[in-house]
Amino acid sequence: xxxxxxxxxxxALAVFVWWLSASESKRRRELATAARQAGLGYLTExxxxxxxxxxxxREGDERxxxxxxxxxxxxxxxxxxxxxxxxxxxxxxxxESRSYTRRTCALVEAGWLWPKLSITKEGILTRAAKVAxxxxxxxxxxxxxxxxxxxxxxAKFAVAFIDAGMIDLLLGTKGRIDIExxxxxxxxxxxxxxxxxEVAALLRFTQQLCAQIPPVVHExxxxxxxxxxxxxxxxxxxxxxxxx
Length: 244
Hints:
36% of the residues lie in helices and 29% in strands. α1 packs across α6 (196-212). The longest helix has 37 residues, at 2-38. The protein has one domain (28-89, 96-229). By secondary structure, the chain is an alpha+beta fold.
């Protein structure tokens, strides 16, 4: 009886592994098709590319990226990719457990020395942050204030960035997309998307958001005229005493 149960367990495990592999293969094909239809490049992995220093990309004990859809037509970085990180814990007997978090991220180069700005959906964690004293920046739209929790190193930058047009665009997401700005990057990320068309759409949305940035932002937080050679590469850390 025990042997029969073990046999059933291993059979079920083999079926699950096969299903998981087949599911990933299907998604890989969908991503490649979506990239081709959208005029984007596609790489299953891109080991030469480094992540910018967002807090999200420091999470966990291990982390990585895969399935990159890249807008090769843009002079600036514009790509969407899967990002994962895992937390590793060990019990009193040394047995290791891994807990994975997976996100789909779109990253577009838009600014230069822009202050840190975070736009996330209101929820339990944001309410806890308020209790801890983190300031939620308010705007004229009460619906926007109810939906989003906005923080920034520079409140004036946040108010300039999130004008009436940006508010309308963001309300259309219903808070499903987290948005972060830091240095020269605009990052949009959400729970890992399953369909290739959805992944490509997230990149289009991020590029639309960048195109929607009010002119006043570029006027008061301009991009210096520097050569590509002088630009920090993605993932470059801020030098001592300097800034991006």
